[in-house]
Amino acid sequence: MMFAKPQDPDAFDPLAPENISPLVAHLASAECPINGKLFAVQGGQIAEVSPWKMQDGFTSTEPWTIDAVAAGLGAPATV
After folding, report:
1. Which of 21, 31, 33, 59 has the most CB atoms lying inside 10 A of its own CB?
2. 3-state secondary structure 18-61
3. Strands 38-42 and 45-49: what pairing?
């Protein structure tokens, strides 16, 4: 897929870097209450991205070892 600048120099270029910087500036401002979120800027759209979610995990009452981590992940130890 090729992206080209609009032929009209006065037209809105949704892919230009200067159309991402206002989001960055807002997120970096002291007035912005947003924290810990991920955003995608694509063309003329800004959208919050739903990040990964934690699945079932495993715990230990002992210090972690490589073998314990490998066993918890269901894989053979590599070391």
Report:
1. 21
2. HHCHHHHHHHHCCCCCCCCCEEEEECCEEEEECCCCCCCCCCCC
3. antiparallel
Name the residue with tokens 């807002």.
26
The reported pTM is: 0.53
| CB within 8 Å of 78: residues ≥ 6 apart | 66, 70
Phi, psi of 49 (to 5 degrees): -100, 135
Task: Give SS3 for 3.
Answer: coil
Q: What is the pLDDT of residues 1-51, one digit of tens each?
A: 556 777 888 888 877 888 888 999 999 999 999 998 899 887 778 999 987
